[in-house]
Amino acid sequence: MNKKVLIINTGGTLSSVAKEHGLTPGLTTESMLQELHIVAGEAELTTQEFASLDSANIFPEDWARLAQVISRQRDMYDGMVVIHGTDTLAYTSSMLSFMLQNIRIPVVVTGSQLSISNPVADAMENLRCAIYMAQSGCPGVFVAFNRKVMLGCRTSKVRSLSFDAFDSINCENVAEISSIGMKINEHMLQKKKGVFRLQDRYCPDVAVIRLFPGIHREVLQMYAENGYRAFYIEAFGLGGVPFIRHDFISGIRGLTEQGMTVLVGTQCLYEGSSLDVYETGRRALEAGVLQAYDMTAEAAVTKLMWVLGQSDDQQEIREYFQLNLCGEVSVPS
Ligand code: ASP
Q1: CATH code for 206-320?
Q2: Mutate which of 10, 13, 155, 158 for ligand 1 pocket (most atoms within 8 A of beta carbon)
Q3: Which stretch of DSSP H or E encloses residue 220?
Q4: For the chain, which terminal residue's Cβ has fewer other Cβ atoms within 10 angstroms, N or C?
Q5: Model confidence over 129-173: pLDDT tens digits?
Q6: What residue spans of 226-313 are helical by DSSP H?
Q7: What CATH number does domain 4-188 carry, 3.90.76.10, 3.40.50.2300, 3.40.50.1170, 3.30.70.270?
Q8: Is pLDDT at 18 greater than 90 in this prediction?
């Protein structure tokens, strides 16, 4: 029997057209139907318009609504494809991974660097890969791009122009397409299977602070005074935070003592952080920070928002960050 695939369009370059103010999403799935059918093979397609947005204009409330749309229809389809702008695609795929934990069907997010109306675009190739993966029966949230399928919560946009715009960070690809077809790395698929429950609560009051030499710790209190509840700090190297002169660590201690959550990761794209190696990391741990380990920035930020939506309790929040919920992190044992 032909597999049923739902295509949900949120906008982005794939569906964009040139307008007076520049490229802007404008094509509906209806107007892309011919192209969609060319790449769908045997799959039985249904299309749904969710939004028509440049992904710079996607907000956390869109993630929650998208998760609701997917959850509501999950039993009616073998898989789903979400068409999305590439700029914030990795945030969406990360948050969907948290909100849709234990989903039984593949949810595959894709986009392209050129509009589907451009004859040399990557759009058809990416859609072909996404629709194929959506029929695979592999449960989870994935990103399909440039003949690779990656875990949604491990993906980052690493190139702004190339077709190879996304990498799977600190984690193998789930699948690759070559002349021998699609090869799925079975061990990359999530084994543990709990009961699916839509978990769409989140708290958007998260600040991201990228350290640089000379950063003033006052910036932390400025955020705190403006209602922020959690911080993701992109520290140096393995997770170093300064503690002499501009004593940033004492600023952090001030936050944790007020009951705020501070998560520390690294500015390095690859290989993650490990705060217990250097004094600059250990002192941060002593000040009460949590570790992001090898999470992407997108996963770190969305996990913070999601965890804060589940609990206000500092101990519970701490425990969530010791867990690998959907493949987003390798927590050292
Ligand atoms: N600005 C576009 C977006 O993220 C870029 C793209 O889709 O490639 O919506």
Answers
A1: 3.40.50.40
A2: 13
A3: helix 218-225
A4: C
A5: 999 999 999 999 999 999 999 999 999 999 999 999 999 999 999
A6: 248-257, 279-286, 297-310
A7: 3.40.50.1170
A8: no
